[in-house]
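re: that chain from earlier
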Amino acid sequence: METEQSTSQVRVRLSTSQAGIVLPETISSLLVKTDLRRYELSGLVNALLGNERAIPFDFLINGIFLRGSLDDYLTQHALSSETTLKVEFVRAAIPPVHLASFKHDDWVSSVDVLSPMSPAQRWSSPNERLPGHERILSASYDGLLRIWNMSSQVTVTSPSAGNGGHLSSVKAAKFVSPSQVASSGTDRTVRLWKYREASDDSPAVMSPQIELHSHKASVDSIAVHQPSSRILSASADHTVCLWSTRKSDAPAVPESSLSAHSSLGAKRRKVGPAVSTAQRGCLSILKSHTAPVSSVIFAPNDSTVAYSASWDHGLKTWDLPASTSIDTRSTSHALLSLVAIPDLNLVAAGTSARHITLVDPRASATKIVAMTLRGHTNAVVSLAIDPNNAYGLASGSHDGTCRIWDLRSTKTDKDGQVGQSMYTIGRESIGGALRISGDGVKVFGVLWDPDIGIVSAGEDKSVQINRGQCADPVAPS
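^ sequence. v structure.
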């Protein structure tokens, strides 16, 4: 006689959109026990596929990752075991592993990369591309830019302040193209640099091209769009500025902008016996924020539109040709970072309240916040999208960690459905340990490149590289 009640069963219909792991139609629908969880379901799919070497799988029901048992899902959604569940299986993401760290003399505020799939490479002409020559650009509080090869060697360092460099800490840096770099800092300037790789008879060179003046306080974020020759900058002076990367298109610097730089000449500044740097002004100043502007980005599909985030809790949409704010989404907390998630029509904003707010910026959106991602224990100051997963995101926080998110990974708490992180990356400088406050290891910048990996910069004076991804790109269904 049975002493235990038989476990109930539910019919599941298994499917996948990833190549190489599709189940035959004849075995894709079957009855399974409702107490199965991800691990047991993964074993079942591997058995159905006849895999000699098991592949770890994740499972989604109605676009959300299964994080408990099938019975938990049925109970949570008030479904009976008579229901047929449509279950999608995908290759599980691999936990990111540490690959390398590049040591600096001071805090590292920002990172960018030059790789086959980076924007600067994709925008460039074929003769500018450098296959097999990936580079990492870092900006530091010591006022210098550095370009590194993948062997953790510095190939070139920007000139010092006396030779055309920044006068104080650099807060942001981007490759505009394989031969041009943009940067900004607490000296209130945006600067353009000419970059040349080393050759057989000459070393690599980074030389000043243009100083761009208009801001009246620290310039903490920049965005570049090489096809339109435009740069956006966000400043603590509450404004966003639009600039040209071409000297011939840029206006002269207003005298009011130069008055704070008394050592500079009205048109050009002599910075050394062989260096003369042109100075230019901005194309337009975008005024509407009422507090420091922390981040600015171009809209991913329209370079005439921009988004900005501010300590005033607002996310603004700008019409750049008209220099006009056309929409404001007000949130509950100071916004510190931005990234667009183009396939989902969302913008992610890191907040001072330790979470990430997902906003639909379209005028047709019926609510301001589409989802909230929780897990960090300090301010979220940098964001990057996963190049292999339309639902993926990386965040950098003052808690000393980067977190990896998949927007389909959610849980229900007192605030409703919220996103939860898949993995947490600690700083290798302290052995990957986690500090709730992040003291000494705050992350200031993060970037995700399909070739190089997850690149982060921080208070520990290091650029850190981690890598981990699923086997196939994931597009929205």
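Confidence is low (pLDDT under 50) at residues 1-5, 262-274.
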